[in-house]
Amino acid sequence: GAGVSQSPSNKVTEKGKDVELRCDPISGHTALYWYRQSLGQGLEFLIYFQGNSAPDKSGLPSDRFSAERTGGSVSTLTIQRTQQEDSAVYLCASMPTQAGVYEQYFGPGTRLTVT
Amino acid sequence: AQSVTQLGSHVSVSEGALVLLRCNYSSSVPPYLFWYVQYPNQGLQLLLKYTSAATLVKGINGFEAEFKKSETSFHLTKPSAHMSDAAEYFCAVSARSGGSYIPTFGRGTSLIVHP
Lengths: 115, 115
Fold this sequence. Notes:
The structure holds two protein chains of two kinds. Chain A is about 0% helix and about 45% strand. Chain A has strands spanning about 5, 10-15, 20-25, 30-35, 45-50, 65-70, 75-80, 90-95, 105, 110-115. In chain A, the strands form two sheets. In chain A, strands 2, 4, 5, 8, 9 and 10 form a six-stranded mixed beta sheet that branches. In chain A, strands 1-3-7-6 form a four-stranded antiparallel beta sheet, with no helix packed on it. The model of chain A has no long low-confidence stretch (mean pLDDT about 90). Chain B is mainly β. Chain B is about 0% helix and about 55% strand. Chain B is built from no helices and eleven strands. In chain B, strands 2, 4, 5, 9, 10 and 11 form a six-stranded mixed beta sheet that branches. A five-stranded antiparallel beta sheet of chain B has the order 1-3-8-7-6, with no helix packed on it. The model of chain B has no long low-confidence stretch (mean pLDDT about 90). The interface of A and B includes residues 35, 42, 43 and 95 of A.
């Protein structure tokens, strides 16, 4: 079946511009995560959505970052007034909540370059 | 609280040699443990997982890992490396806390396979 998809695959933007990154999770997966992966670093947790619960935003690095998830499916990560240090690969993952299944399914990522 | 330490940012082996990638974790509750692999320009893919059943876990592509509670380790091994194993490997730990489920990832180990 279809996996997690992300768009765009690459995004080049000028410093100070806003960007929106999109994630389409696997159908029926109730949990959705955003991570940031910088060169030589691990995965930095950004935000977690679980069903209709309030999202866990504890990983967002600043108030320039926000995310929403509409209808329990598609999610958009927005970065306002981008800075060069925002350059990274942004990964989205989804996960079902059925018993015994705890692994995440990752999308291919969006590579963001801020010039 | 939970954390993961992957020893060695790079591991180099010859084709046909044993692969050993080290992962140590800390968790205040019984953990779930995972190994993911990331090929260039792709998202992460699950290799194997430990969820409190058998301590020796077999995964895809001939990899396996052993959960050792006394050593708080979950090292990944493969008896014979193949060129196609060259990739980035991530260890992750998670535990359900207050209804939330946010895995913590290590910084990753790059596996280099020489012919």
